[in-house]
Design goal:
single chain; alpha+beta; 2 domains; 4-stranded mixed sheet; 3 helices; about 25% helix
């Protein structure tokens, strides 16, 4: 099975050499994890980075049935950023597989739910105060799965999810002492 790899760039030119390098490296990910449906690689040159060593950005997003894994790395060389991001995504795959196959948590089957949709980003803000908008479908999960998904996506501060136990949208956040908090909004 060939892996679908989508390569996009921002503020830089995508040469054939870079494209072939990314496809060659990223297409090996399906050896580590079955069920990968799509891999998206976003490459960018951040002109406004404080340090010259952080100007080349590589972000890899791996999507499959019931999981999304993401890694982002910065470097002064685009090839080094790609390699470091690949190492990070491989560690996240091992972590995901280890937790899943050791039985520490099970991924429930939700046949009636649609798969996670592509995140839509608008480049131009609608109003001066909103810099970016994201839309995505939520997959029902419990609190422990939300903590695991938060770690797999690399989100450090918060994670929005649909709580399967309460049938409500919740926000999971990491507290300063390393524990987690859960916000359960209610309409007044």
């Amino acid at each position: 099975m060939t892996l679908e790899v989508e390569v996009t760039t921002r503020n830089m030119e995508l040469t054939d050499r870079i494209h072939d390098y990314v496809v060659k490296k990223v297409s090996k990910l399906d050896r580590y994890l079955n069920g990968i449906e799509e891999v998206r690689v976003d490459l960018a040159h951040a002109k406004s980075a404080r340090s010259a060593a952080d100007r080349q950005v590589a972000q890899i997003t791996v999507r499959g049935k019931g999981f999304i894994l993401r890694a982002e790395e910065r470097s002064d060389n685009i090839y080094a950023a790609i390699d470091t991001a690949l190492d990070k995504i491989q560690r996240r795959i091992y972590r995901y597989k280890g937790k899943r196959y050791r039985g520490r948590y099970e991924v429930p089957e939700y046949e009636e739910m649609e798969p996670v949709a592509e995140i839509v980003e608008e480049e131009e803000p609608v109003t001066p105060t909103i810099a970016r908008r994201k839309r995505f479908n939520l997959i029902p999960m419990d609190e422990m799965e939300a903590i695991e998904q938060m770690a797999l996506l690399g989100h450090e501060s918060f994670f929005v999810f649909f709580n399967a136990n309460t049938n409500a949208i919740n926000v999971l956040y990491r507290r300063r002492d390393g524990t987690y908090g859960l916000i359960e909004p209610a309409v007044a």
